[in-house]
Write a structure and sequence with these properties.
Order of helices and strands: HHH
Structural class: mainly alpha
Number of helices: 3
Largest sheet: none
Distance between the termini: 55 Å
Strand content: under 5%
Number of strands: 0
Radius of gyration: 23 Å
Shape: rod-shaped
Helix content: 55-70%
Oligomer: single chain
């Protein structure tokens, strides 16, 4: 009688697909984080010094605030 083993994965192909999809998701996440930092930096740079002071920032804080989400 022949038996077919259904408990094994397809000899590592599932692992390879998982690693590739994880890599693509990581790259996509980095691009999204970079774009969020860029948008934040541009929005804060467009504010006047008085508006920045109202939210407790100075012009020198813009890069630090924008990069905080990007560094993970």
């Amino acid at each position: 009688m022949a038996a077919f083993d259904t408990t094994r994965t397809a000899y590592g192909s599932v692992l390879a697909v998982s690693r590739i999809s994880s890599f693509i998701a990581h790259i996509f996440g980095n691009v999204v984080a970079w774009n969020d930092a860029r948008v934040t930096r541009n929005a804060l740079a467009a504010l006047s010094d008085r508006e920045l002071d109202d939210i407790g920032l100075i012009r020198g804080d813009i890069d630090v605030v924008a990069q905080t989400d990007f560094i993970r």
